[in-house]
Design goal:
- The chain is mainly α and 213 residues long.
- It has a single domain, classed as Arp2/3 complex 21 kDa subunit ARPC3, CATH 1.10.1760.
- The N and C termini lie far apart (40 Å).
C-alpha cells in the first residue's frame, strides 16, 4: 500500500506538471516536450526509483500521469502526450532495471550525469517514436512506416535538448536525496493522498473552467 501510494503521488505530480506547466511552456512557444522530460519526468522518476528501488514503479507512474493528461485535452495533441508519458515511464523503468542500477553504485557525479544524459535522450526519443506509431493506430488513421521514416532525423535531433537537461537533473536529484528528509509514518498516507487529490482536482477544475468559458 505504501508503494501504491507513492506511485499515485509521483504519477499525479508528473501529470500535474505536464498539464499545467507544460501548457504554459507550449503557450510561450518553448520546447515543452524536451523541458518536461528532461526536468520533471526524469527528476520525478529518478527520485522515486532511488527512494524505493522497486521495478515497475515508474511504469505505474507513467500510467497515472498519462491518464491525468487525458483529463486535460488542451495544448496540442493530448492523446499524443498521454501515450508519450506512458511510454517514457516504461522506458525509464526498463533502462534502470536493465542496467541493474538498483544494485550498482550511482553515487558518483560522473555516473549520475552519464545516466542523466543517456536516459533523458532515450526516454524522450523513445516516447516520441512510440507516439508516432500508436497515435495513428488509436485514432483510426492507420500507421504507415514511410510517414515515420520521414520524421526520424527530426525526432533524433529533438532529443539533444532533453539530454543536455538530463545531465543536470539526475545529479540534482541525488543532492536532494542526500538531505535525507523523512516523513513520519502517520503522515505518509494523508500527505501522499492529499497531494494526489489536489493534483487531480486542479487539473480537472482547470479543464472544466476552460470548457465552460
Amino acid at each position: 500500500m505504501k508503494l501504491f501510494a507513492a506511485v499515485l503521488v509521483f504519477g499525479s505530480l508528473w501529470g500535474f506538471t505536464e498539464c499545467i506547466i507544460g501548457s504554459i511552456l507550449r503557450d510561450a512557444n518553448l520546447p515543452a516536450g524536451a523541458l518536461m522530460t528532461g526536468i520533471f519526468a526524469l527528476g520525478l522518476m529518478t527520485l522515486s526509483r532511488v527512494s524505493f528501488r522497486r521495478p515497475g514503479m515508474q511504469a505505474g507512474m507513467g500510467l497515472v500521469a498519462g491518464t491525468l493528461r487525458i483529463f486535460n485535452p488542451f495544448g496540442g495533441c493530448f492523446l499524443c502526450s498521454a501515450i508519450a508519458i506512458m511510454a517514457e515511464g516504461l522506458l525509464f523503468d526498463l533502462l534502470w532495471t536493465g542496467f541493474s542500477l538498483d544494485q550498482r553504485d550511482t553515487q558518483t557525479m560522473l555516473n549520475q550525469a552519464s545516466f542523466g544524459v543517456s536516459a533523458s535522450y532515450i526516454v524522450y526519443i523513445g516516447g516520441y517514436f512510440i507516439t508516432q506509431i500508436l497515435t495513428p493506430v488509436f485514432s483510426g488513421a492507420g500507421f504507415y512506416l514511410e510517414n515515420l521514416v520521414a520524421f526520424v532525423p527530426q525526432i533524433l535531433a529533438s532529443g539533444l535538448l532533453a539530454a543536455l537537461i538530463g545531465v543536470i537533473t539526475v545529479p540534482a536529484v541525488f543532492i536532494v536525496i542526500k538531505l535525507d528528509v523523512k516523513m513520519k509514518d502517520r503522515l505518509y498516507y494523508p500527505i501522499t493522498l492529499g497531494v494526489s487529490a489536489m493534483c487531480w482536482i486542479v487539473v480537472i477544475t482547470n479543464t472544466i473552467i476552460i470548457l465552460w468559458f
